Amino acid sequence: MKIAIIGAGCSGLCTIKQLVSVGLTDITCFEKSDQVGGNWVYSDIPGHSSIYKATRTISSKSMSQFSDFPMPAGYPDYPSHEQILAYFQAYTRHFQLEKFIHFDCCVEYAEKAPNERWLLSLSNGTQQIYDYLVVANGHLTAPRHPDWKDQFKGSYRHVHEYKTNHDFNNKRVLVVGAGNSGCDCAVDISHVATRVDLSLRSPQYIIPKYIMGKPTDTFATGFEWLPQWFQDKIQKIILRLLIGRYQDYQLPEPDFSPTQAHPTLNSALLPRIRAGKIIPREEITHIVDQTVYFADGSFAPYDIILAATGYQITFPFFPPGFINWEKALSISLHLRMFHPEHANLCFIGLLQPQGCLWTLTEVQAKLLSLLLTHQIQLPENWRSLALAEGSNWSKQFLARPRHSLEVHHSAYLKQLQQVMAEVIPS
User: Residue 306's closest CA among 162, 141, 140?
Assistant: First the structure.
C-alpha cells in the first residue's frame, strides 16, 4: 500500500511512526516547510504558525508525552514552545522518521483518481498516485474574522499574527475573545499597553493552571471514575473555592458546566483584572471609526483590536466543495477519523480535545495502523455511525463553531482503545 501523509507536525510524525512499526514503509509525508514540528515551529513572520514568543502548553508535561517517548525530566510542568519543538525533533530522530518526509514540498491539489486512489499535485511540479491519504495538516491556519472587521479604522489584527507585545507599547488595545489565545495575549500585552480591554461575547470558564499544587489536568484525572455530572459539580465547587465568583472580576457567570465548552487555562488573567490592568467588556455591537460600542451601552476608543476569534476548518488542497466544514457545528467522521464517503481517507489530529492533542493522535495513528494491516476492522455500519457520532459529540458541547471538533479526552481515548481491543483472530 502506497500511503501519503500531509503535514509533519505532531499528528503526521506519530502517524509515520505507527505505520512503520507494523511494516507499512511505502510512505511519503509531505511537509511544506523545511523542518518537522508544524504549528510548534515558531517564526517572527506572521502567519507561519499560531504560537507567539511566550507560548507555553496548556496541558502538563506528564499528560502531554507520547507513550513510548517521555519528555525530559528537566522540563517544567508546562513546557515552552521551544521545548515542545525540541521534543518533536528528538522523537523524529529517535524513531528515524525523517527518511519518510519530503520537506519544502506542498500538496497543492488532492483529487480522487480511478480505482479509488488519490492523485496529488505537488509544489515541485510533479504528480503522484497513492492508495491511501492521511490528512494531518492541523486546523489552526485559517483565521476566522468577525463581521465588523472592516468597520474598525485603527489597526486590526487576528491573534494568528501575534508574536510579541512590542508593537503594543502605550497603545489602547481591545482583545476580542476569552479563549486560551485571547487571554494569554491580553496578559502579555497588559504589561506594556496604556490600556487593555477584553471583550467577551459569552461567559467563559477561566481556570488556574494549578489546583492544590498540581497541574490542573493531572489533578482532574483523580475524578475520571466518577459520573460526568458529579465531576462537573466537584469542578464548580473547587473553582468557587479557588477564585470566588466570576462576577467579582466583572466577568459573566457561566450558566453551563465546565466540560460543555473548551476551557481557558490561565493563572494570570484574573489577578491582572483585579489589578486594573485588564478591563472586561461585553460583546461588540458596532464600531464607528476607532470607537467600539458594547452591548451594555458603553463605548471606548482603541488604537488596536486583536481578534482571538478562532479558526476555520479548511483543506486548501481539496477541490472546492469536496469537503466544506468552515461553518459546521457538527463534523461527521467515524471515530473523528474516517469520512463516510471516502474509505481510503483518514484525518489524524482533526480534534479539539479538553486535554493534550498529540497523546490522542498517537492512539489514532495506532488504530489506523491496525486497520490498514487488517488486524482490526471497522463495523459494517461505520458510515452511518459517522453521522450519528458527529451529532452526538455536538450535543455534548455548546453549539458554536469552535466546538465542532471538541472531544472529552478520556471518553474519546476509551472509545479508540475499545475499537483497538477487538483484534481479528489470526
Answer: 162
Lookup result for grid cell 496541558: 59
What type of residue sits at position 312? Q
Give the DSSP letter of residue 160: G
**Which residues 6+ apart lie within 8 Å of 186 measured at CB?**
175, 196, 198, 269, 272, 278
CA distance 209 to 60: 9
Cα 29 to Cα 15: distance, rounded to the nearest angstrom: 9
Interaxial angle between packed helices 409-421 and 358-372, expressed in degrees from 0 to 180 and rounded to the nearest 10: 20
Q: Name the DSSP letter for residue 295.
A: T
**β-sheet bridge partners, residue 294:** 284
- Does the pTM of the predicted model rise above 0.85? yes
Cα separation, 388 vs 15, in Å, equals 26
Burial of 234 (C-beta count, 10 Å sphere; 0-12/13-18/19+): middle
35-65 pLDDT tens trace: 999 999 998 887 778 899 999 999 999 999 9
Interval 216-235: pLDDT, tens: 999 888 888 888 888 888 88
User: What does the alpha-carbon distance between residue 226 and residue 83 come to, in Å, rounded to a whole number?
Assistant: 34
What number of other Cβ atoms are within 10 A of residue 110's Cβ?
24
Residue 143 sits at the vertex; the CA angle it makes with 3 and 179, to the nearest 5 degrees, is 105
88-124 confidence digits (pLDDT tens):
999 999 999 999 999 999 999 999 999 989 999 999 9
